[in-house]
Automatic annotation (TrEMBL):
Ranges for domain Subtilisin inhibitor: 61-145
Superkingdom to which the source organism belongs: Bacteria
Classification via InterPro entries: Subtilisin_inhibitor (IPR023549), Subtilisin_inhibitor-like_sf (IPR036819)
A Pfam cross-reference name: SSI
Family the UniProt entry places it in: Belongs to the protease inhibitor I16 (SSI) family.
The organism of origin for this protein: Streptomyces albiaxialis
Protein name: Subtilisin inhibitor domain-containing protein
Signal peptide: 1-36
Length: 161
């Protein structure tokens, strides 16, 4: 399955590019339906980083919303801090950080995991906002269900304890 857009012709939900930019309202994402590319922050955003963010390899807020888009109920949320993982609320912070390190801090490059997910259309929208090695990163994607979100991210988006 294409991980950056869902194909409506296959009976799946469309993930419009505007979802990320409009929902996040930050202007830090340049996207088309098939791509999501982080863009370096402007001076005010970079200046607002505290010293902990500057010292950390990566810091993200990961939020899982029910449904298509970020207007749905938040069903899970976690803070992910990498190197050090202190202060993380992610249930498997060390594993998630190791996977992100291998993916160069790109959520879209996380390896998929073989899971037997139900063929149930109960969409979730995952948003990850933060910094990786002092570069702003934003990722937003609609998955068929929470199992698929977990499988397509090797468990990084599984925020259950």
């Amino acid at each position: 399955m294409n991980r950056t857009s869902l194909n409506p012709s296959r009976g799946r939900l469309a993930a419009p590019a505007l979802l990320a930019a409009a929902a996040l309202g930050t202007g830090l994402l340049a996207a088309t339906p098939a791509t999501a590319t982080p863009v370096a922050p402007t001076a005010p955003a970079a200046a607002s980083q505290d010293t902990a963010e500057a010292r950390s390899v990566g810091r993200f807020q990961i939020t899982v919303h029910e449904g298509v888009g970020t207007g749905g109920k938040v069903i899970a949320s976690a803070r992910l801090n990498c190197s050090p993982t202190a202060g993380s609320t992610h249930p498997r912070a060390a594993d998630a950080c190791r996977l992100l390190e291998r993916a160069g801090g790109q959520f879209s490059m996380l390896p998929a995991q073989q899971l037997a997910c139900p063929m149930v259309d109960k969409p979730v929208t995952v948003v990850a906002k933060g910094f990786w090695k002092s570069t702003a990163r934003i990722f937003a994607h609609i998955y068929r269900n929470s199992c698929e979100a977990s499988a397509q991210s090797s468990g990084v988006f599984n925020l259950s304890r």
